[in-house]
Write the structure tokens for this entry.
Amino acid sequence: MNNTQRLTKMALLTALLCISAYISFPLPFTPAMVTALTLVATLIGLMLSPKDTFIVLIVYVLLGAVGLPVYVGGTAGLGKLLGPTGGFIFSWPIAYTVLSIFKGSERSFWQYAWRSIVITIPIVYAFGIAGFMLVGNFTFEKAVWGAAIPFIPGDVIKCIVAAWLASKVKI
């Protein structure tokens, strides 16, 4: 793959990540939202090299940090990064790059699915829970129940969908 193709793929996946932030809805008991971002971020980790995955996710974080409305629900800014849900945003370049490193060389739905689940979910929720506790002054128990438990089943499903897509798409 030449550099132009590589950069085009990265730009398209960055745009898809930004768009996916608008596919979200709130839950009444938590400031965290259900979003399609995690599905697309998982797809990025499975489809790109670790270096390209890291670049795409850092670009995404920086776009939102400078004020472009690319975070969940069209939000943006340092206030969002430093708010109770900022830990999730900070986790993505790490979690999905680690996924990209350990996804394996075989394009396999089952390998992608279980690796996505066991790699990304613990990393993302560790950062997210820490953010809730540090910034939102939540106890560990309240942070787990407000920022993790209600979202894990949906994230498992999103990992499975991303694994299926990544195992079928040839880019």
